Amino acid sequence: MSVELDVFVGNTTIMDKEVYQLWLNGYTVNDAVKVRIEGGVMEECEASAEVLLSDTMDQYRTFQMCERLLHHPAKLANQLLFQIPPDRQAMLIERYYAFDDSFVREVLGKKLSKGTKKDLDDVSIKTGITLKSCRRQFDNFKRVFKVVEELKGPLVENIRQHFLLPDQLARDYAAIVFFANHRFETGKKKLQYLTFQDFAFCAGQLINNWTVGAVGKTNNMMEDMDVDLDKEFLQDLKDLKILITDKDLLDQHKNLVCTALRGKTNVFNEMEANFKNLSRGLVNIAAKLINAKDVRDFFIDLVEKFIEPCRSDKLTSIDVNLYLTHYTNSAHILDTFKHHAVWTRYMGVIKSCILRMYHD
Amino acid sequence: MPGKLKAKIVAGRHLPVMDRASDLTDAFVEVKFGNTTFKTDVYPKSLNPQWNSEWFKFEVDDEDLQDEPLQITVLDHDTYSANDAIGKVYIDIDPLLCSEAATVISGWLPIYDTIHGIRGEINVLVKVDLFNDLNRFRQSSCGVKFFCTTSIPRCYRAVMVHGFVEELVVNEDPEYQWIDRIRTPRASNEARQRLIFLMSGELQRKIGLKVLEMGGNAVVGYLQCFDLEGESGLVVRAIGTACTLEKISTFPATATHPNNSSPSKDMKEPGFGEEAPGVPLSSGPPTPLRAQTFSSFSPSKSYSRQSSSSDTELSLTPKTGGHLCHFCMIPPSPFCVFQEYPFFTLTAFPPGFLLHVGGVVSARSVKLLDRIHNPDEPETRDAWWEEIRQEIKSHAKALGCHAVVGYSESTSICEEVCILSASGTAAVLSSRFMQDGPLDTEHRFEEVVSPGCGFCHIPYDELNIPFPAQLTYCYCCRRYKVPDVLFTTIDLPTEANVTGKGCLIQARLCRTKKKAQGEGNATAISSLLPFLEYELHTQLMNKLKLRGMNALFGLRIQISVGETMLLGLASATGVYLTALPSPGGIQIAGKTPSDITYEQHISTMQKKINDTIDKNKELYEINPPEVVEEIIGSPIPEPRQRSRLFRSHSESSDEVSELDLSHGKKDAFVLEIDDTDAVEDIHALLTDSPTPAGFYSCNTEIMPGIQNWTSAIQMFTSVRVFRLNANLTNQGLNKIFSDLCENLLKSLYFKLRSMVPCCLCHLNFTVAIPEDELIQVAVTAVAMSFDKEQPLENGKQSGEKTLIKGKHRPLKAMSGIFPPHLSFLSSLSPSLSLALLLSTASSLEKASPLPEGRSRSLRSNRSYSGSSVAVVKMTPLSFIPGAKIIKYLGIINMFFIRETSSLREEGGVSGFLHTFIAEVFAMVRAHVAALGGNAVVSYSMKECVFMENPNKNQAQCLINVSGDAVIFVRESELESTSVQTQSATTHTSNATL
Question: Which residues cross the membrane (chain A) (predicted)?
């Protein structure tokens, strides 16, 4: 004796948020039922395990039927098969495109290729996130990447319009796309302490300041591309080398910074001692960015060349902030230094990235 | 050339990829009506083609306009091979033929393929120019309005109710034609879909002609069914109630106000000749369910039927003397007398229309199907139904009634055996609203009957009760006799006095039967039927008493036949009618009272039952006012302390056969137990698991005791198929079947828990035996939330109800009805005066179904407006809470077939059916939206035939749905000023919601 067929169809499609989350998390029907039983929904509603199983299967089926629409969220609003209130539609989309920070840390900066997808079972074991959920998240990244790759205009806005995502989520996806596009190295041991949100913040900085689109905002919208770094700018960065190659300039710069810092911090001596080292680090990073391969190492370089030395000198983030502020500003006072615009554009991003990354 | 049909193909969207190479489609459209076909240009390489075609014009007879659907086929152009069909859209243009319905069909309609389901959408525009045809001998009936709603539609008033119309058409089923062996499943399905479209169009036209002949302009309570008789053919039949309706133009208006109706010139004085009531009946069940007349199958070729109890009825002799006088006061309706079948498919009536209710009448007959030789003369099928209707009519007569209301017909087919069933409620109807001035007799009558209890008063002669029933004086008016229990197939009249709330009551039964062929099979079935129906009835009675209630409304008994079993499911809504006596308890008696432990066991059982009754009374708020007999000096018979109940033991067939339907002579209402098995059985049978807190359920339109609905409604369909093990006993089967229904209900409650407090209304169960060891249960219902904010006290509630009812009558008529009302009101609060009565009207707003959360309803409505797809509400009810229906756009009657040969890939049987039902909903919504509507009312899924062959990875399903497309507006959006000026009348219409 068995139930051979069991369906429930409402004129307004009924979707339980809790079950949806379990489905998204890649739970099997039976596991989902267990979780629900533990959640106490049975006592609340005077239901039996049988009822719960039937409901869970039914909901899972509904979600599976909806999934194909969720791949193109704009379709959800003008399809006829399911009558779903707009606020529900927004919830469905938002949760479908939500991802786990621990998962995204694993694939951030990796090529969104079949090869990476094959390795997802390792990621699944490492993060404790079900393979099914990993695949969904990965496919979401890939889908968003493919769509915006072809599009012109601001990256975040494109993602928001095409996938109907809320602002924050759209920004996160922009970061993921940006990282995947430039293949930034994020997996090294030294970078492990950084969260996805740290990287997302940095990505935001880079997108807003260093890309073609960042310039384009003021002039030509046609060429607007947020995904690629501004080649011209990267070329110009090489000019900054003068700050470390010109001995006079380097000394002058050091003096100016030290004068400004004196008495304002109790790690002054360390700062003074390390100035040339740190300055060389930052300027070298700038000069190398024209090579795509070095772009990948941007974050690891920041950590190795700047953050680690500072940390070993026990600088607080306030100290770092102080140092970078004066380091940036002092350069403008230098007589022979002419590249003010490039310097501001470069250091603005470097400063906020370092400050964001400067934690345990 | 009386009509010009115009169609324009605008665009398509979301089309499937038909060309793998380019991932695109070269789509074009064929538009076909009758034998004329037009084509659009090919729109190359697009999934969202913009055809923007010219207007395709079809010049056709209006007869064809009624019969034929407009057929739109979307194809993919292929230069080298045959063009591939993407899918089809059938458009029923009937709504455009009636001036008061829709004027244009315009919108996105899903493109449907019987193998692939919905494949994109197409935007079309359809119009009809109709020329007047005054030909008296015309074959068309354009302009006759059809309504599925089984009450007078909300924005109309009934000028005249003409009566019963029926028709059936037969044809060969394309699936069983020889050609089916060589054509594709798609072609076969499409042939079937198209044929059924044509047949229902033809049927509707023929019914329309009958209506015109009768002088009507509309069919209300239109019920169309298919009988898939397999080899022997396809029958489409329909019944309905012919009416003359008049649109209420001004707003706000009293939609159901009978007093406003203009007097009909055609009315004739009632004749009394055949209205002799009170036919004595020697046998019959001890309750008003006067149904048990079965055709005992006789093997002769003519299949003549014998009714087990009809002999006496058929030899009717008009009664004379005393009791004829008594009945003079109840003028029989003239429209009934001159009708062959005084049947009404309506289940709700304008107040005062329904005078008395006698009880349920039903008839069944078992037939052997034979190939329909000549489709143009479907006489056999007609004759079968004739027989049944005759029987129903005679049953009604035996109950002293001249009419049958809430009438419906159904069939169950298994192989070549077919059970035809018909049931309804015997009733006496009033004609006073149909006539010029009130007559003297009617005035007298008016004084006598209070509307809250009048319909309960027995229509039959108490000296010649057609069945053994306990009569008492009415507990409301104390002047007329009422039965102890009342069973009906209609909705609870709005004016009825009800104590507490109601609930869904179901009796479920399985009976095994031996596999047999032909006549032997038919004989076996017809000999089983009486017992099945008897036990269902006993179960209903037990469950009713267990809930402390005394009346059933909306009773629907469904008997399904399979190869090795019979399935019976009776659903109804139990209520406590204030006018009827309080039901007695249930007493258990042991057969061998020698053993002490056994005695104890019985007493604990008894205690359990008594406790359940008490709990139920509390749950449903049944606390009828104490009867103070001194005040009313009328001779009231002692209320019976308990009724006794007899239960037959299903496991012993010997015992069963001893039973005759007149077992009322025995000690009737004792539960007899002779072994412990039976005890468990009885207990399990009686104790359905209670509905969870916050839930109520009923199978009628409205739930007594709940009025403040919010606008939150959720219509749903749920289907379950259960596979049985072989070799089950009757008892085992019963348990499984009962559990299946119970679990289904539990699942529904769980699913809809977010809507609490809420009521599942119009819970409509249909059972079927699709295969030997399968049971299929399908449920369609609507869950409606209500506000708990104003819990009404019980006593106060009935008082307020009465006040609302008072407003049903215009002021000038009030003098006529006042005496009975006043006396009733004064017993509640003696200081109440006429002025008070009127001034309280506005404060009563809260008690009316107008939801308190008006603002809420508005909000929810607005929140949808952002979506690009119009929201279409669906409900099996005839109304939408908190809203007013301002226009009926026409009937929706759609038939779909879906087939798959990749069942596993589509998610198994559940995935397949889930998608299909969702698709059907989507297509209904789209067609309603294209007509300009925003809701379907009186929606029902009349057929859901599911067949599977998992070994071949195949499944097929047929679904037939119907309803009325309407435009509604939220009451909160209506001008408040106009509501205020006519507050009394608006409230009236609200109260009847």
Answer: none
Among residues B837, B825, B992, B945, which one has the least CA distance to residue B352? B992
Which residue, among B161, B82, B71, has the nearest Cα to B124 in the 3D structure?
A: B71
| Residues 6+ positions from B32 with CB-CB distance below 8 Å | B38, B70, B71, B72, B73
CB spacing of A83 vs B720 below 8 angstroms: no
Q: Which of B692, B873, B925 sits opposite A80 (nearest CB)?
A: B925
Q: Tens digits of per-residue pLDDT, B382-407?
A: 889 999 999 999 988 888 888 899 99
C-alpha separations of A314 from A267, A301, A305 in Å: 8, 19, 15
Instruction: Extract the residue ranges of chain A whose pLDDT is less than 70.
Output: 1, 214-226
Helical H runs in B152-270? 185-214
C-alpha span between B250 and B39 (Å, rounded): 45
DSSP per-residue letters across A265-295: -TTHHHHHHHHHHHHHHHHHHHHHTTSHHHH
The β-bridge partners of B27 are B43, B76
List chain A residues with CB under 8 Å of B872.
11, 83
> Rounded to an integer, what distance in angstroms lies between the CA atom of residue A269 and that of residue B648?
103
Cα Rg for chain A, rounded, in angstroms? 25
* pLDDT band per the 50, 70, 90 thresholds, residue B432: low
State the amino acid at position B753 in one-letter form: R
Note the ipTM here: 0.88
The 10 Å CB-count burial string (b at 16+, else e) for B15-39 is bbebeeeeebbbbbbbbbbeeeebe
Collapsed DSSP state (helix, strand, coil) of residue A331? helix
Q: How many CB pairs under 8 A join A and B?
A: 142
Task: Say how far apart CA A40 and CA B713 lie, in whole Å.
Answer: 27
Using DSSP, how many helices (H) and how many strands (E) does chain A show? 23, 1
More confident call, A204 vs B861: A204
Interface test with A, best of B739, B750, B784, B864 (most A CBs within 10 A): B750
Q: Which residues of A touch B721 (CB under 8 A)?
A: 3-6
Token representation of residue B119: 């494949």
- Structure tokens that stand for A47 in this block: 């239901």
Residue of A nearest to B719 (CA): A7
Is A52 touching B (CB cutoff 8 A)? yes
CA-derived radius of gyration, chain B: 28
Please, which residues bridge with residue B237 across strands?
B168, B225
Tokens of B735: 């348990």
What is the rounded CA–CA span in Å between residue B243 and residue B144?
10
Tell me if B72 sits within 8 A of B31, measured CB to CB: yes
Q: Return the residue matching tokens 């009885």.
A: B682
| Pairwise CA distance, residues A337 & A191, whole Å | 33
Residue B859 above 50 pLDDT? no
Distance of CA B427 to the CA centre of its chain: 18
DSSP-derived 3-state class of residue B620: coil
Contacts of A164 (CB under 8 A, 6+ apart): A73, A74, A76, A77, A90, A93
* DSSP calls for B638-652: PPPSB-------TT-
Q: B203 is written with which tokens? A: 């049927």
3-state secondary structure B659-728: CCCCHHHCCCCEEEECCHHHHHHHHHHHCCCCCCCCEEECCCCCCCCCCCEEEEEEEEEEEEEEECCCCC
Q: Which residues contact A185 (CB under 8 A, 6 or more apart)?
A: A109, A191, A296, A297, A299, A300
Element (H, E) at B742: helix B730-751
Peptide bond into B288 cis (omega under 30): no
Altogether, the residues listed in chain A come to a count of 360
